[in-house]
Amino acid sequence: MSNMTDILTNPDRFFAELSQRDVNLRTPFVIVLVSAILGVIYVMVAFRVMTSSLPEEIAVISSAIATISAISNLITPFISWVLCAAAFYAVSMLFKGEGSFSRVFEFVGYGFIPSIIASVVGLATITIMTPAAGFPLDNPELLQQTMMQHLSSSGPAMVVSTIIQILLVLWIVVIWVLGVKHARNLGTGHAIITVLAVPAAFFLLWCILLICIIAAA
């Protein structure tokens, strides 16, 4: 039986052992659900921090935006789970991958574990970077001075947070590569291409769209 700690220390062995068992979507579903809930909490806390010093009229509008963003953050992880699994399954067909979609779907769900950590890091960063007294919005000069001082003091925390977030994204990629490798019985190279082909395709489409917009302007 695979050990859950292996997903953190040895994901290759984790997926190799898990691939010998029947597909079980319960654990990855809980992982994605926790990721979604923490994402909602992060958005609500972030909006609360940003609107704490705003006038009441603007705060009401921001509250509505926060609610919409929270709902979006609750749904988006599940949509991403389905779309990523479908994309990985489709691309891996080019390499004659073997294995069911449900297995790919299961293994991709485990890739959301770093997202849980990312939300926790984000919440910690917001807590560190939030000034206790808020920003003096009624005095533009004092506001600018306060913001500069605050950014200067919280700069190291922001840098550390950014580095951690980048490492967590790389961790997601590693988990997905190894997950797809065992779910579709691919070589490591083909699994890497399968996973990286998705963001590469989106980037290419974005560049084409940007070029079209510039050409039409």
UniProtKB/TrEMBL annotation:
Any Pfam family the entry gives: Yip1
Membrane topology: Multi-pass membrane protein
Compartment annotation: Membrane
Record domain Yip1: where: 6-208
This protein's GO CC annotations: membrane
Transmembrane annotation, as ranges: 29-47, 78-95, 107-137, 157-179, 191-216
Protein name: Yip1 domain-containing protein
Sorted UniProt keywords: Membrane, Transmembrane, Transmembrane helix
